Amino acid sequence: MGASLPPKEANLFKLIVKSYETKQYKKGLKAADAILKKFPSHGETLSMKGLTLNCMDRKTEAYELVRLGVKNDIKSHVCWHVYGLLYRSDREYREAIKCYRNALRIDPDNLEILRDLSLLQAQMRDLSGFVETRQQLLTLKPNHRMNWIGFAVSQHLNANASKAVEILEAFEGTLEDDYPPESELCEHTEMIMYKVSLLEESGAFGKALEELHKKEPKIVDKLSYKEQEASLLWKLGRPAEASKLYRVLLSMNPDNYRYYEGLQKCLGLYSESGQYSSDRIEKLNALYQSLSEQYTRSSAVKRMPLDFLQEGLRRP
Questions:
Q1: How confident is the model over 166-190, as pLDDT tens digits?
Q2: Among candidates 7, 64, 13, which has minimal Cα distance to 36?
Q3: CA angle 42, 105, 118 (to 5 degrees)
Q4: 25-29, 31-35, 201-205, 271-275: range with lowest mean pLDDT
Q5: How far is CA 277 from its chain centroid?
Q6: Which pLDDT value is given to residue 312?
Q7: Which domains does the chain have, with CATH numbers?
């Protein structure tokens, strides 16, 4: 950036970028004017001045300056990137993507532009392009955890959950046994839970439960662990074990409607259609009578019976 400028002006250009990032727009504008006083046709400075003006609600001037910047330095990836950012701010995502691609023709391995491009590809549901860009980011910087996760997410969104699991497993293969450090426990927990959810989505319930149990010592979110375990046990046809877990979860939070629904499913008392037989209504009534005695202060335990009691009242 600002490579064609003398040292003093090059430092001023860095100040423009920093001022833009820290939202000190007047300061950035002053630095841009100082450069343009000596180099009035400097494309990258014109573009950055335009981007700064855009943040000051001077949109017409902004577009004029950015277009002039591109015209004066059409081979600058900075000018094209800024042009893309301008379009993105106006939600002109297709035009922004075109600008990013022009920037990448000049600087194919620019991580910042690739990241910006990938976000817009996801936004516009260009999922095959999203996969390609996230793979390129991973290839360029494989030691960055978020690039592995980003590539996995791109495959997941592209309806390839099994491939996403393979990517996360490949990433885990690069880790030391004592990973993660304490400062990254939460992030690592989220990755493990994401991998388990991918296995569940793929229909590999047994493998998902096995993975959950195997990684349990490294999962700090014990509530999510129990919720996922209960869900998987039920899907594996082990309702007795799942119902015990849902009762544990209810003891932790008796106002969570999902736990009541989960318990009903395990007991064979849940109806997707909301229609219940007389026998099922009787059993549900007994269940919620017992639960209401146990959780006297819960509003959910009082609300849930309305679903099946109303069905009973509608019967002749």
A1: 999 999 999 887 788 888 899 999 9
A2: 13
A3: 105
A4: 271-275
A5: 42
A6: 46
A7: 222-316 (1.25.40)
Residue 262: partners with Cβ closer than 8 Å, 6 or more residues away: 230, 231, 234, 242, 246, 249
Tokens of 95: 């035009």
Which residue has better confidence, 70 or 315? 70
Alpha carbons within 13 A on the beta-carbon side of 126 = 14
The yes-or-no verdict on residue 232 having pLDDT over 80 is yes
Neighbours of 21 (CB within 10 A): 9
DSSP per position, 212-280: HHHTGGG---HHHHHHHHHHHHHHTT-HHHHHHHHHHHHHH-TT-HHHHHHHHHHTT---SSS---HHH
Nearest residue to 196 (alpha-carbon basis) of 204, 188, 186:
204
- Please compute the mean of the pLDDT values over residues 202-231 and round it to a whole number: 97
Tell me the two tokens of residue 245: 């877990």
Nearest to 3 by CA among 45, 37, 34, 36: 45
CA 263, CA 242: separation in Å to the nearest integer? 8
Residue pair 253/218 in contact (Cβ under 8 Å)? The answer is: no
pLDDT of residue 251: 97
- How far does the chain reach from its first CA to its final CA, in angstroms? 79
Q: What count of residues does the chain have?
A: 316
Residue whose C-alpha is closest to residue 158's, from 122, 194, 123, 190: 122
Q: Is the peptide bond before 40 cis (omega within 30 degrees of 0)?
A: no
* pLDDT given for residue 313 in this prediction: 46
Mean residue pLDDT of the chain comes to 94
The C-alpha angle 3, 135, 155, rounded to 5 degrees, equals 145
Contacts (Cβ under 8 Å, ≥6 apart) of 159: none
Q: Which two tokens stand for residue 311?
A: 């069905």
